[in-house]
Task: inverse folding
């Protein structure tokens, strides 16, 4: 056999080897991909089955709910203004929450609530009564139309916890119950769903001057210094402090400007506790139209409020924090 023939045979063998190696690699790669995909599917199925069949988790949640249910619940303090359909929807929803004790509707309209409205809401509460307990409903009638009405002192509240809420905001009951549990661990602070932040002005000609920032600033920085009272828990004692102890000039300012009563309450609580508020993660369902926050100049007005209140309190009491309370029972990984 000549050298040329040997060379041809070796070349043919080399080519066959390379082709065989490529086929083997493709086969191994395909099998590996299929195996990894199979493992992922098995993992997901096992996770779902385990989460749905862990009796110790379900029983621990039930025990926690029973322990929580053995204590007093909370009072829903709902602010409303001529939006009766929204009021009916909100009351109907929250009446289903297991730890709700009573509903107080802050009524500042010139005319009292109609008999038909009161009858409708009472029927809703009767239908949703549980274990013989019917949620108490009361309209807190105010002669003056003022934003301060939402924080007026209520003498005969049966619960220490107050859940302040606007009539156009809905949270699932389990989310509200979780926030209530968080509040019970720190009952002197505000616990809420809508965080906001203030920032000091860095220019030399504006010493001790602060600016108000909204959600995007909180999201970007991971920091907040207040939670808005449109959806927040606080102790009932702060209603008395707001009405009777906070400087009257602040209440007059909020009445005149029709803004910032929520910032004033945040100042009041932070000044009393020297501690930050607590932000609870929760899905917000807004069932109404946009409010005053969508009006031009809103941030500038809120900034003016901040600095006016700093002057009244003699300091900036708001405390920065990056803590967020999350219900791990609703997460796969935490």
Result:
């Amino acid at each position: 056999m000549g050298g040329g023939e040997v060379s041809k045979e070796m070349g043919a063998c080399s080519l066959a080897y390379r082709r065989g190696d490529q086929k083997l690699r493709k086969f191994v790669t395909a099998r590996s991909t299929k195996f990894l995909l199979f493992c992922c599917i098995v993992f997901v199925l096992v996770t779902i089955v385990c989460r749905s069949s862990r009796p110790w988790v379900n029983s621990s949640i039930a025990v926690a709910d029973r322990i929580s249910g053995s204590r007093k619940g909370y009072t829903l303090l709902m602010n409303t203004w001529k939006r009766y359909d929204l009021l009916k929807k909100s009351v109907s929803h929250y009446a289903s929450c297991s730890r709700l004790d009573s509903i107080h509707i802050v009524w500042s309209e010139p005319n009292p609530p109609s008999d038909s409205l009161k009858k409708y809401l009472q029927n809703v509460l009767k239908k949703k009564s549980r274990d013989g307990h019917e949620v108490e409903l009361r309209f807190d009638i105010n002669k003056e139309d003022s934003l301060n009405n939402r924080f007026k002192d209520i003498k005969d509240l049966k619960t220490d916890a107050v859940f302040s809420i606007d009539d156009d905001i809905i949270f699932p009951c389990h989310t509200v119950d979780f926030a209530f549990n968080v509040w019970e661990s720190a009952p002197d602070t505000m616990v809420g769903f809508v965080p906001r932040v203030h920032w000091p002005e860095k220019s030399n000609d504006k010493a001790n001057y602060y600016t108000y920032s909204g959600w995007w600033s909180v999201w970007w920085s991971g920091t907040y210094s207040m939670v808005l009272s449109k959806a927040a828990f606080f102790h009932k004692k702060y209603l008395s402090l707001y009405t009777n102890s906070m400087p009257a000039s602040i209440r007059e300012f909020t009445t005149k400007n029709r803004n910032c009563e929520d910032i004033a309450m945040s100042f009041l609580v932070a000044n009393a506790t020297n501690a930050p508020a607590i932000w609870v993660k929760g899905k917000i369902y807004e069932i109404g139209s946009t409010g005053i926050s969508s009006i031009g100049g809103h941030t500038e007005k809120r900034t003016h409020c901040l600095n006016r209140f700093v002057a009244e309190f003699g300091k900036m009491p708001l405390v920065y924090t990056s803590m967020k309370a999350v219900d791990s029972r609703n997460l796969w990984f935490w």
Remarks:
- The mean pLDDT is 83.
- The CA atoms of residues 81 and 203 lie 41 Å apart.
